[in-house]
Amino acid sequence: MKILRSSVPIWLGVFGGSIVLLAMFIKIPVHVGLWSKWFLEWRVILASFALTLGAGNLLRIHANRIRMKREAWMYSYVTIVALIGYTVLGILFKRTHPVYSFIFDNAYSPLSATVFSINAFYISSACYRAFRARNGHAAVLLLSGVIVMLGSVGIGYAIWPGFNTMTQWIMNYPNSAAMRGMNIGAALGIIGVSLRVIFGLERGHLGGE
Amino acid sequence: MSASPGVWLAAIFTLAIYSFLYGDNPVYKFSEHLFVGLGAAHMAVMGWESMFNRAWTPLYTKGEWWWSGAIIGGIMLLTRWFRPIQWISRIPLGFMMGVAAGLSARSAIDSQFWRQIQSTVTMKLNTTNNIVYVVIVVCTLAYFLFAFNEKSGLGQGIKGVGLVGQYMMMIAFGASLGSTIMARLSLVIGRLDFLFKTWLGVLK
Amino acid sequence: MQLVAGTLGKVWFLIAFTVIFWFFVDRTAKGHKLVIRRIAGFDALDEAIGRCTEMGRPVHYTFGVGELDANVLASFDVLGYVSGQCARMDTDIIITNALGEVQMMTEEIVRSAYVHAGKPDAYKADNVRFVSSVQTAYMSAILGIFQRERPGANLMLGPFFAESMMLAEAGQQIGAIQVGGTGRTIQVPFFIAACDYTLIGDELFVAGAYIGRKPLQVGAVYAQDFGKWLTLLLIVAGTILATSGNNFVTDLMKK
């Protein structure tokens, strides 16, 4: 039983990870490619099941909030009703049902678009703070940020046509080259961390040491 | 002004979310909780459809037996809800982590590592721009060296080159921020366009 | 067995990486002291938890809404450490998740950290929360959590997408001390703009080795550095040779 609890999950991970990685290099035997394809498709299905568990956790937390009368507990009713009602509607009557579509188009979508657009306010205030030249790094950040901003809008071109050329140069050379350096570094980090799992050395995600 | 109930509902939710910019308030709390519920429900429905259409239907109607692995794994995940047999859910979890690691390593080796180096080594150092490019890549990469003693001569050298790389990264970050601000502002314009044109009809 | 065309170089690289990895794991396990340079973002974790303890406010920890990948795994090392410290200092930690599978793994990690800290009863299951896998719904819920539960520290380590900016700025507005880090380099500028400390790209993947100093993790860092030295060598040699009309390195990498 102990093997099933602790070793089998790790070894299944080793098997799955190795097959997916090897499929990149090995053409024959054909099993490797086929298994890799299955495993990647299984992963999507398993994630769907996991999502159900996530929704269950959400329900439990909101039910507990109501039970314990924690802050803003009455709004938890809204989440619970929306979650159960909309799920039942979608599963029983499909997503093509007019009520499902009406809620999606006139509640879900505008809520989503508006939350995303708030980003504009946040990025503006964050940049204002970051661009205040407190040190050498911030000064460089400010200079490059302002040039690119001016180079991306008509008013920048009206002030000085050179902003356009400078923006192009910054994007094509320092920006692209620094991003490339960072990407190569990050790739090696990803390889290192992934190999630890593929070698079966990582147990942390299953609660082990 | 629009007479459509749907447009009114969308406008009310748009304003409810924007009200958060003033501060947390009951209207925002209601919208947030509704959105979280709808979001979880929508994803659960999509998940159900995905499981049904991509795994169950091919297994049941076409006899594609390999999908049984995904369905059995999924049922094992659901044991999470039953404390005495909760440990069973670790088996598919371990598998998911392994496959995720394999996939991560695969894309990192190919597109993020190998191809990036390939594109760099073909550069000829015969123009100032190319020299600048290669120097920046080298300096940035030097910043990400970790295994060295900072007090040694070599360590000081790596730190110095890495510092240049750090400044180059700041140029890149500033450029990214500058270009993103413009893109994000267009999202607000999109919502304002909806409010003033579609809902209120005051702009043509 | 037959190799896919154009992958021979990658295979050799992986073999060399693996050999170096095991060599340094072995050296560390035998007690050789291996050094890793200072990374301010990790040193700031204790400061952040300490501040929360003093203020009686919780720590907030998020992986972002990206899928389960190496970023999440690296972040698990940090989460294990942070939740252990929170358990020892009697400080609440709220973890918000966007993926069902990460939610389950997070529960295991945090519960285990509380057990190892000798405080299994202090573990609060309701603080390890699945919020939403919809990016914008997740963002709106976090804005609410920040306003109502006012975490004193906001730790954002994982595969972030566009939510990085909003989470970091919202945390800034409630005065939380913030550490952000992601291997998705395109999101790093937003953390730079709004966080007190940022782990840039590869720095996140050094987490386990830097915090835990476990042999296998230190070994991985040394193998990563080997990869960087090799890359530097290829770039310098390759570009010099290419300038003189010799495509040796380019051809070698095509094999």
Structural account:
The complex is a heterotrimer of chains A (209), B (204) and C (255). Chain A has helices spanning 2-22, 30-68, 75-93, 98-131, 136-152, 154-159, 162-198, and one strand at 26-28. By secondary structure, chain A is mainly alpha-helical. Chain A folds into three domains: 1-93, no CATH class; 94-130; 132-193, no CATH class. In chain A, helix 1 crosses helix 2 (30-68), helix 2 (30-68) crosses helix 3 and helix 5 (136-152) crosses helix 7 (162-198). The model of chain A has no long low-confidence stretch (mean pLDDT 90). The N and C termini of chain B lie close together (12 Å). Chain B is built from six helices and no strands. Chain B has a domain at 123-204. By secondary structure, chain C is α/β, with parallel strands linked by helices. Chain C has a domain at 40-211: Rossmann fold, CATH 3.40.50. In chain C, 58% of the residues lie in helices and 11% in strands. Chain C has ten helices and seven strands. Chain C has helices spanning 8-29, 40-55, 70-88, 100-116, 135-149, 163-173, 188-194, 207-212, 215-243, 248-254; strands at 2-3, 59-62, 93-97, 128-130, 153-157, 177-182, 197-200. In chain C, strands 4-3-2-5-6-7 form a six-stranded parallel sheet, sandwiched between helices. In chain C, helix 6 (163-173) packs parallel to helix 7 (188-194). Classes of the chains: A mainly alpha (209), B mainly alpha (204), C alpha/beta (255). At the A-B interface, helix 1, helix 2, helix 3, helix 4 and helix 5 of A face helix 1, helix 2, helix 3, helix 4 and helix 5 of B.
What labels describe this entry?
heterotrimer, A: mainly alpha, 7 helices, extended, C: alpha/beta, Rossmann fold, six-stranded parallel beta sheet
In what range is the share of β-strand residues of chain B? under 5%
What is the 3D form of chain B? extended
- Rg of chain B, nearest Å: 27 Å
What composes the largest sheet of chain A? none
- Order of helix and strand elements from N to C terminus of chain B: HHHHHH
Counting DSSP E segments of at least 2 residues, the number of strands of chain A comes to 1
What's the mean pLDDT score of chain A?
90
* Percent helix range of chain B: over 70%
Secondary structural class of chain B: mainly alpha
Helix content of chain A: over 70%
- The global form of chain A is extended
